[in-house]
Design a protein that fits this description.
The complex is a heterodimer of chains A (about 90) and B (about 160). Chain A has 3 helices and no strands. Chain A has about 90 residues and is mainly α. In chain A, helix 1 packs across helix 2. Chain B is mainly alpha-helical and about 160 residues long. Chain B is about 65% helix and about 0% strand. In chain B, helix 1 crosses helix 6 and helix 2 packs across helix 3. Classes of the chains: A mainly alpha (about 90), B mainly alpha (about 160).
């Protein structure tokens, strides 16, 4: 009856491994986030990490948007020689 | 690994850069006469954005669930069929167990997890472990995408 509710404590190896796995994955995510505001980055809750992750992904999406717009305006004005230069510079 | 002068030709960064530059060249070749009008700029912006996502998804191919979902989305959009996204989602969700994310010990993050599922392509069909793993990879790819696009924009601004 209460097996589902106390699954994280009682039902043995399966969910204990899953909990640890989840904590590992959450801290792995935490390390990818920009550490601007976290003073005590060791003890952040999983919910906070996920929240920050969502915010970070949204800001990355916005950056891609802005860069696409910027590139669109730049493509209107540049000439063809630069493409070859850029490719060679980036692919060195 | 962080050699500033040589780029590993098989790295995600160089695979993305090659594809994206190729796409940009094609987009620029489609220049109409009024290439600086706001409408044209907007149309090109849409094409560039799709090219950026496409280039990234193809650079990862089917190795990750999120890239498969993105490729699926891009293909069904370009073929202009009836949106098959719901069928895909339903058939995948039938076979996937979703781990409950609310616990008795206060480690509940169900709301945040479902928010994350909406942001990561294909996230709705992933269990929690896969979602977290895919998110980490997705973020790495997004930062690469931003990094390369910034470099290109800076070069074009010279």
């Amino acid at each position: 009856m209460s097996s589902r509710r106390s699954r994280s404590r009682q039902s043995g190896s399966n969910s204990r491994i899953t909990d640890d796995q989840i904590n590992d994955l959450v801290s792995k995510l935490h390390q990818l986030l920009p550490e601007i505001r976290n003073a005590h980055s060791d003890k952040v809750s999983a919910a906070k990490v996920l929240q920050e992750t969502c915010n970070y992904i949204r800001s990355l999406h916005r950056e891609v948007d802005d860069l696409s717009e910027r590139l669109s305006e730049l493509l209107a004005t540049t000439d063809n020689a630069q493409a070859a230069i850029i490719r060679s510079l980036l692919m060195q | 690994m962080n050699n500033p002068h040589h780029m590993n030709p098989r790295s995600l960064k160089s695979r993305f850069t090659t594809r994206f530059l190729r796409a940009l060249t094609k987009i620029r070749a489609q220049k109409p006469i009024s290439s600086s009008s706001p409408t044209e700029i907007f149309r090109r912006y849409r094409k560039i954005k799709v090219a950026a996502d496409k280039s990234m998804a193809y650079s990862v191919r089917s190795r990750k669930t999120w890239s498969r979902a993105m490729l699926w989305k891009l293909r069904s959009r370009s073929h202009r069929r009836r949106p098959v996204k719901t069928k895909f989602r339903q058939s995948v969700m039938k076979n996937t167990k979703t781990t409950t994310t609310t616990g008795e010990d206060g480690v509940g993050f169900g709301v945040e997890a479902s928010e994350l599922r909406e942001l990561v392509p294909g996230g709705e069909a992933m269990d929690l472990c896969n979602l977290l793993d895919e998110t980490a990879h997705y973020i790495k790819c997004l930062t690469t995408q931003v990094q390369v696009m910034k470099k290109i924009a800076d070069f074009y601004s010279l």
